[in-house]
Specification:
single chain, 141 residues, 11 strands, 4-stranded antiparallel β-sheet, 41% strand, mainly beta
Length: 141
Amino acid sequence: MYLPEVFGRDLFDDFFSFPFHSTERNGKRQTNCPMKTDVRQTETAYELETDLPGFDKEDVKVALENGYLTISAEKNLNDAENGEYIRRERYSGVCSRSFYIGSGISEDEIKAQFDRGILRLSIPRKRETVQADKKKYIEIE
């Protein structure tokens, strides 16, 4: 069968290449899965919208630790099905992403909603109080 070729490369070479690099971490497959996130700033909050297609609400966890907000998602595909896979492109594994939001926010203040594969987070903006600059002197020895 003749396959089209351009500049010495088969046009179908890249068609079946999978764009994610995977590694093993803690016995689970860790893949650089695309967690595309939009961050919007309003007068009172930061709003994050993260695409997590194919994940259920139970697969997603949001944690706050030391000022970092971490979104993680884990998906396992059923390997008990009969037959051997020739190629498997559906995502299975763990992915996560972290954002620094500061230490002045508690988990009770963050609102989360998951609907149709989109995680929406609302994080209140804390207004930093600016202290009046006081002149400070350095002692000369």
